Amino acid sequence: MHDLAALTPLGATAPKVDRIGAMTISEVTDRALASVSCRAGKSTPFQSAAKKLFGTGLPTPGHWADGATYGLIWTGPEQWFVEAPFGTHEDIARIVKEPLGDTASVTEQTDGWVRFDLAGKTAVDMLERLCPVPARRMKKGDATRSIIEHMGCFVICREPDHFSLIAPRSFAGSLRHALCAAARSVA
Amino acid sequence: MIIPHPLLGPRDSQEFTYLGDANLIDRPDWQAEDAVDRFHDYLYLRDNPAGEHKELWFHEQGDRSWLVVTRNTLTHEIISAELARDVARTRGRSK
To answer: What domains are defined for chain B?
Structure first.
């Protein structure tokens, strides 16, 4: 049996938290992630299977939705990211694939991405410096993919003062640098 | 420049990459008798209008959809944007 040490995307053994002015920038590692794509011609059975499994309707373009266990983020036409607690859903792709059967294609994404949560009253001021999405107009339930300093990045509005950013894992260090620089400039 | 994405609303053009003339989605039938001539035209012949031009844009840093954007090459005004798959479907392809 292998006994490997788990590392966070920033390379430490525990997630990093930066507190700068009113902002808290935290690396989030306790969520598992998979992508789910509806297969061609299976839209109707997929929608009912997905609703039963996730406990919420599929979010429309530009939105996310939460069920009891799962969160869904719209990522493209007929494609969503599924989030769930890592502790109970480490093997999320298999857990999600079984009930969806041949209505959808599911791929594991957990270790491909880094997630930072921005919490604080200057979150919108920070995002306005970083990203072309209209962060000030985003409401709870909005989620979209855009760019932050040339890095492709999902911007998810949990609350108007709480955003999640999900970027490719190898950008973790560069993205944290960009976030901390923006946080200092609005502090 | 702002591109009015049909699903996501107005988006900054820095999220997109540009491919070229929208005729590129009309790929000729490779089994046709005159396939060589048609591929020659498909590859090399382009209109270069001063005015309205249909072109393909890819929302790379977004939802990864291909768009057919109608743009005025003189004023850079964007007249419309449609999903390329919808355009292909109206021509009877990609069910």
So the answer is: 2-90 (3.30.2270.10)
Q: What are the pLDDT digits (tens) for A36-51? A: 999 999 999 999 999 9
Question: What does pTM read for this prediction?
Answer: 0.91
Give the tokens for residue A63.
Answer: 């939105």
- This model of the complex carries an ipTM of 0.87
Residue A62 has its nearest CB partner, among B8, B64, B83, at B8
A17 DSSP β-pair partners = A26
> Per CB distance under 8 Å, which residues of B are interface residues toward A?
7-9, 11-12, 14-15, 60-65, 83, 85
- The amino acid occupying position B83 is L
The closest alpha carbon to A92, from A2, A145, A30, belongs to A30
Structure confidence at residue B71 (pLDDT): 95
**A4 to chain B nearest CA, in Å?**
34
Pick the CATH number of A17-29+112-186 from 2.40.160.60, 3.40.50.150, 1.10.10.10, 3.30.1360.120: 3.30.1360.120
